[in-house]
Structures are given as structure tokens and as C-alpha cells.
């Protein structure tokens, strides 16, 4: 059995410049992820990323930061494993794909871009105070699981992550 | 003066599996781009990308296809310059950034992702039968220039591209 | 038939800070590529890249520059089609893969990295005053086609490119 | 202080199809890395990557695998933290940059490419039964620290990593 198989990876995406309301939500999302024993993956910088990591570390969780730049020390102080990419914002896709599920908190255009990218890859998305979007047919898109509290966000995320993981585990390890 | 300075680059993004209505719009967008003497940049594959390129080539325009995979021959038949990336859908960002402006036609989640990414980079976006989105404050986002015909899309795109180009040209060439 | 099928793409790689001897060779390589009617692909910046493009444009050739940064205006003045990637030096792989063949002129570590990457992808490499390398078995590697003049470099490159292209064309266009 | 600051990250690069001699060396390199309490970063797949991870996990070390593809389950069974990139072999640069130092074991062209890339970035490289290379001036390159045993490789790597880390820590955390 793969050493990573036991683990659930949850990607947290959100704005890097954030209000205190959103910051508080992000920190609580991180804490719930840590308490659940899941690994938190994010972009490694400030705002929602930093607050979520701070929350996770407050309960001794594990955090991975996939950095856009070439400097490890740009990681926020709560990152355990900084991945130094040097590929700029193309790294957003790596954050999303490394998660079994994505939790989006608040939102800049970058967050909207990551939500859409995740849905395109059929990675489930949980939304907390984030974007909604309307297809050109006029219909409101229904793919994101919108929630109103951090606790609810992580509960649903864990459930969805188990489904993703199950799908992955049924695919065979190729030796 | 830079050899590229005379040129306007317009990125066209849209779904790879497309209805005949959207296909017709994309082809006309491409034709208008070609007639305007601008260079069409796209993801190089099918659907909106292919129809737009077909339109551009019908009036002897120039087309660049930034391919996700490692095979040049996956480019649609109307691509003059296939760029072989092998970086998968992370190549979407290259399509967007290579344009002075983006025209989004129709739309899958990939298209939404590219629109949001462009706006995050302050690259202007013209939308034709594509996504709208609502900020978590409840307000409809107003950054995309929505239009209803291909002709109008390209007219506005050219105007916006000139503004982007002007901003770029005032930055100095560093020897 | 694909619009790109008629064209031969030659990637030119080499150091960005270069001696006058290497610069002269690069310029002549570019001129020969232009005279042969092939498209020159490079990293878009200075040194070997700039001199090669200058040579190509002196005979009205076509040049593509795959830029590492996010600013189009960082392209050297002889680039017709700047591709704006924003993915840093990971863009080197795109330069190499976009060529049917690679010509390496002079060489920094970046050049060595691109030669090795090309060989790993079975893209043929022509070397002009560039690196040689010794396998841990003690044997000198024989894959690079070392030449001593720009004219010879381009003649062999064109021949090798036709072989690559032939292999590609026999793979079918998937509609 | 950054949560990652205590940690040393060592990138291990090497061929994915490997002889039993090289495999044994790789496994021992991994074990020494684990015993030293450093984090092992690699490309996450087979051959040198898998054997090194196996060695690290045999002494309860920590392993990160930066995968080229889009499937987490392609990671070898000894990876704790699979990073899912989907950017193909452009991910090699991420492996190298995430290390404070690189250990190259054996070697395909991919390994040569990663060694050269690391040197271009001024990331120190330790070589164990790997490539040597000759500058076009005729001089053998002297940048790689060649060693003959896994124990020696990791000892020197740890020493070099401390130097890299010191340089990084003197750069300030930007709030």
C-alpha cells in the first residue's frame, strides 16, 4: 500500500489580500482540516493561504505550500513543506490537482480561476463565501457545494475527498 | 523597433466541444481577426479554437496554437505556428498572456478559468455568449466586455488591444 | 493538410551572455535558417538567441521567441511572434519541443540542460562549439551531431528535421 | 520562524530504469537521508526515485514526490506527499528547486538535464556514478561534487544544504 494512501489532501484556495472576516473563516477551515488529520495544500503565500495554515498548525496539522516563485523563504511561516516551482501562477493548477477536494474561501479572480479549473478536472469544490457563476444559457451553475460555516466546509470536503480517493485507489498501481 | 511591435495579438478561448451556433460565431470571430490583420492565438485544438482559426485562414490571417500535449500534429489544420508545450492545461495561461486581449466564445469550465485568469492579470476580456459571475458580496462582476456579435467582439478587442500595447510600449526595451 | 505541415521548425539554444565569436556564429546560423525558409524558435532573449534572430531577419526569415517572463517587451527586437509564458526557465522545454531539431551554439549550463532534455525526448541535436559529456560508464556520448560551421549546422539540421517531420506526419490527424 | 526552516530538503535525481548496482546505491542514499532527518524530494516515480524513497522510509524518513502526470496513484509506494503537477517533464525543475542541494545517482539524459539546470541555478550538486561534461573550451567542468559512496554523498550534501539554507535565511521574510 502506498505511503500516501492513508492520507486525505485538501486544497485551500482564496485571495492573498483578505478581509478580517474571511481571514477568520480561513483560519477555522485550517483548524478543522488539521483536527480531521488531513493534509492542507495551498499556494504557500499570504491571506487565506496563511490563515488556513496557521489554523492547521495550531492543532499540529500538516501543511504543503506550492510556491509560484523561486524563493523558499517566500512561504508563510506555517508551511511545513514548501514546493519551489518558479512557474508563476501556473502553479495554481498544481495546488488544485494535489487535492482530493478543493475548499474555496472568499475570492479574487485567481480563486475563480482555480474553482473553474478544478471543476473542469472533475475535482469536487466546496465554496465558503465565494463566487457563483452563470452559464451563457442563463442557468446558475450548480457544481460547487456552497456552505456557510468552516466546520460544514471541512465535513463535506472530507466526505467528497473519500469519494475521490476511492476512485483513485481502484485504479491499479502500475509496476 | 521590435519586430513584434507592429502586431496585435488576440487570444481566443472557448470550449473544445461546441454547438453549431457557437462554432459559427467562433469562425466569424476568426475571420474578423484575420481581416483586421491581427494575430490569432489559441490553444490549437478543436471546437472554438479550430473554427476561429479556420475563419482567420479563410482571409489569410495568421494563427498560433499553444498545444497542451507533446505532439505537434495534434494541432488543428489551420494552425500556422504550433507551440509544443507538453505542460497540459497549464498552457491555458500562456494562451491568455500571449494576447493583448482575450475574446471568450461560449464556454466550458476551462473557458471560465481562462477568463478569470486574464482578469487577474489585468488583460481585458471580451465575452460572446459566455459566463457571467457573481462576487460573494452578491454583485455581478462587470469587468468582462460582453457583446452580441463577432464583429462587435473584434472591434472592441482591437481597441482594447491598442490600449494594452500602448502601455507595454511605454515600458522600455532593456539592453 | 495542416497549415504548419509545410514548415520546418528549428530551435536554437545557447548562452544569453555571449562572446563575439559565438555571437557571430549564432548570427550566421540564424541567417542560414532564414535562407532555408525554416522557422527559427528560441527563448526570445539576448545573446545567442538575439544574434540568431538578427541573422534570420536579415534575410526575411520568421522568428518565434518563447519568453520566460510575463512581459512581451522583453523579447529581443528580432522576434516576430513572442510567446509570453510566465513560467520561468521551465519554458526551455517548450523551446526544445517546438523544434523538429535543435541547434546548440556555445553554451552555459542552461544550454547543456536543453541539449540533454532534447536527447531524452529523441529530438535530434546539432552542436556548434558546445558541450560534450561522458556517461558514468566512461564513454563519451555520441548522440549530438557536432559540426564546425554554421552552414554545416543548418544543412544537417534541415536534413534531421525532415526525418522528424516525416515521423510526425505518418501519425494521423485525429478528428 | 518558518515551520519549514528547521528542515533540510535534499533532491534525489536519477534514471527511472535502473541497474541493480545503481538501485542499491540509490536505496542507501535514501536511507542516509532519512537517518540524517532530512526530507527527500524526487520525481515520485520508479528506478532511482523509488529505491531512494524505499531507503528513506526504511528508517522512517519523509518523502515528497513531484509527479509529472495527473494521477496521484502513479507515485511509487514510498511517497508520503505526492504533488500532482500534470506539467510533464517540466516538473523536473520543481524537483531540483525544492532541494537545498541535489544528489544525482547514475544517469539518463533526464538526469544530465537536471544536473545542468541545478548548476545554472547555483544549487549545489553531488554526483554518484553520474555524468561528467566538457565545456567547449575543452575543460572538464568542476562544479559537481563527485563522490564514490552513498554515505559520502549524503554527508557532503547535508553540509552544502546548510550553506544554501543559511543564504536563504539571511534573506528576510516579507510580511
Overall description:
The structure is a homotetramer of 175-residue chains. With 175 residues, chain A is of the alpha/beta class. Chain A is built from five helices and eight strands, in the order E-H-E-H-E-E-H-E-H-E-E-E-H. In chain A, 38% of the residues lie in helices and 20% in strands. A seven-stranded parallel sheet of chain A has the order 4-3-2-1-5-6-8, sandwiched between helices. The mean pLDDT of chain A is 93. The A-D interface holds A 1-4, 7, 39, 53, 57, 63-64, 66, 70-87, 90, 93-94, 97-98, 121, 168-169, 171-174 and D 1-4, 7, 39, 57, 63-64, 66, 70-87, 90, 93-94, 97-98, 121, 168-169, 171-174.
Secondary structure topology:
Four copies of one chain form a homotetramer.
Chain A lengths: L8 E6 L5 H16 L3 E4 L5 H11 L3 E6 L13 E4 L7 H7 L2 E5 L3 H12 L4 E4 L3 E3 L10 E3 L2 H21 L5
Parallel strand pairs in A: 1-2, 1-5, 2-3, 3-4, 5-6, 6-8
Helix pairs in contact in A: 1-2, 1-5, 3-4
Give the key terms.
alpha/beta, homotetramer, seven-stranded parallel sheet
The span between the termini of chain A is 13 Å
Main beta sheet of chain A: strand number and arrangement? 7 strands, parallel
SSE class of chain A: alpha/beta
Instruction: Round the mean pLDDT of chain A to the nearest integer and report it.
Output: 93
Task: Name the poorly predicted regions of chain A.
Answer: none
Taking all Cα atoms into account, the compactness measure Rg of chain A is 15 Å
Helical segment count of chain A: 5
The percent range for strand residues of chain A is 15-25%
Gross morphology of chain A is globular
Amino acid at each position: 500500500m502506498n505511503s500516501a494512501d492513508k492520507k486525505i489532501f485538501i486544497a485551500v484556495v482564496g485571495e492573498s489580500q483578505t478581509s478580517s472576516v474571511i481571514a477568520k473563516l480561513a483560519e477555522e477551515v485550517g483548524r478543522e482540516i488539521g483536527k480531521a488529520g488531513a493534509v492542507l495544500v495551498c499556494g504557500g503565500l499570504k491571506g487565506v493561504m496563511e490563515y488556513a495554515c496557521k489554523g492547521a498548525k495550531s492543532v499540529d496539522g500538516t501543511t504543503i505550500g506550492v510556491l509560484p516563485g523561486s524563493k523558499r523563504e517566500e512561504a508563510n511561516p506555517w508551511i511545513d513543506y514548501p514546493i519551489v516551482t518558479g512557474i508563476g501562477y501556473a502553479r495554481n493548477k498544481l495546488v488544485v490537482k494535489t487535492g482530493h477536494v478543493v475548499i474555496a474561501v472568499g475570492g479574487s479572480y485567481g480563486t475563480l480561476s482555480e474553482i473553474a479549473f478544478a471543476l473542469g478536472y472533475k475535482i469536487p469544490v466546496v465554496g465558503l463565501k465565494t463566487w457563483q457563476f452563470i452559464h451563457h444559457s442563463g442557468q446558475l451553475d450548480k457544481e460547487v457545494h456552497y456552505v456557510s460555516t468552516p466546520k460544514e466546509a471541512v465535513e463535506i470536503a472530507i466526505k467528497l475527498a473519500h469519494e475521490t480517493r476511492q476512485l483513485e485507489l481502484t485504479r491499479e498501481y502500475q509496476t
